Amino acid sequence: MNKASILTLAAFLPRSRANGPGLRSALWVQGCTLRCEGCFNPDFQPFKGGYETSVAEMVALLLAQPDTEGVSFSGGEPFTQAAALAEVAEAVRAAGKGVLIFTGHEAGMLRMSHNPGVQRLLAAADLLAAGPYRRDLPQSHPLLASTNQELVYLTRRYRGVELGPRRSEFRIGTAGMVSATGFPVAP
Length: 187
Ligand code: SF4
Fold this sequence. Notes:
- The protein contains four helices and nine strands, in the order βββαβαβααββββ.
- It has one domain (3-182): TIM Barrel, CATH 3.20.20.
- It has helices spanning 55-63, 82-94, 107-112, 116-124, and strands at residues 6-16, 24-29, 51-54, 70-74, 98-103, 127-130, 150-153, 168-172, 178-182.
- By secondary structure, it is α/β, with parallel strands linked by helices.
- A seven-stranded mixed sheet has the order 3-1-2-4-5-6-7.
- Helix content is 20%, strand content 27%.
- The protein starts with 5 loop residues before the first strand and ends in a 5-residue tail after the last strand.
- The structure holds iron/sulfur cluster (SF4).
- Iron/sulfur cluster (SF4) is lined by residues 32, 34-36, 39, 41, 44-45, 75-77, 104, 132-133.
């Protein structure tokens, strides 16, 4: 198996309503170099940690959710594993599902990248929520955490789709651990 076919993930949710439009799966990659002050997921920044899975296993898990509208990639920084995620995105799109990517990079920087994996992932995505998190510029948008971030529609799939309201989800694991996902509701 080549390296592009391996993903290092921090977390995976097969079904969520707090990470994009409708009912969708969500995965969080492990590793991010951007170090935004106030990052919601600091445990997902180190490149050591998380767990490895193959693109094939990930695609199988995503396609085993017949009623999900799509998948969201978050992190960590999804574009650090662009080639492998592009394979996932192409497979789920071929099955009719949509792809939303939360990235700390600005869309213009990604478009100028000479990394073929980055370009392939952009070509396989429908929507970006793009830009670094700025704690000093908070906002209450359903998918954007700070006002410097932007939604970038790469296809028509999500144009005009109702995004709100902002949602959070809490889960209690088998060991009693509580985990939270989504966006905190603004006070
Ligand atoms: S890009 Fe995301 S994961 Fe990376 S430091 Fe910024 S908020 Fe955290």
